[in-house]
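Morning!

This is the sequence you dropped in the shared folder:
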Amino acid sequence: MVKWFWQRRPEGRQLTLRSRGDFGDAVRVDFAELAPDVDRFLGQAAYLQLGYFETITRLIRATDDLEEKEALSRAAGAALTKHRGLTDLIVERGKSPTALMLPFREELDAFRRKTIGKRPRETMLSVHITAGMLDDFYLALASSYGDTGRRVARILGADNDRAQIAEIMHQTITSDDEWRWLLSMWGRRLVGDTLLVARAALASDRLDTEDEKRVEPVFTALMGGHARRMDAMGLAS
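The structure's back. Tokens below.
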């Protein structure tokens, strides 16, 4: 049976990946050769944050509950702050944010459409899970870009204000076993599409055996972070 690179035992060095909310043992891997060029990295990261903001804003319009609107507005504000931080950095580098983001618009918009559920609760879970995994992944990539990467890490590592979204999920599944089943299934479905986005962000379209070994610990850590987020909400990963 073929195993993907995130399913095998980790080896490697150099790259630090911090799972969301976890500042303990770091996973390190030599990733620099597979990292995209810095403009591509910044363009993708900035457009992802803009996409999170847009999706959460749609959720605000879709709910009548004032407390939920307030919780979602904080998460939207955090995503917009990160987007602006990244676009400011792009401008400082003498580039156009629009020009750097545009090549990824079609692909990342398609990803967001795939992860918008039939019901607002599913979409809330999508934001919490996909943003968590991809923020972790881009934090991992950031270590490849020197001072620019350190600034990106500070931007992406800021509070995402999604804790109340996770609490809404927890309250939902605690009060309704049908929701627990549905959201558990939805959470599992999100993983494959999210890992494909992360994989597409790498510089190489194809990974040889050695490349797979380099990136394997990062994807293993992404899955670990996903499992912890699901467990914290009371959902099976």
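Headline: The domain at 11-233 is CATH 1.20.1260.10 (Ferritin).

More detail when I'm at my desk.
O.
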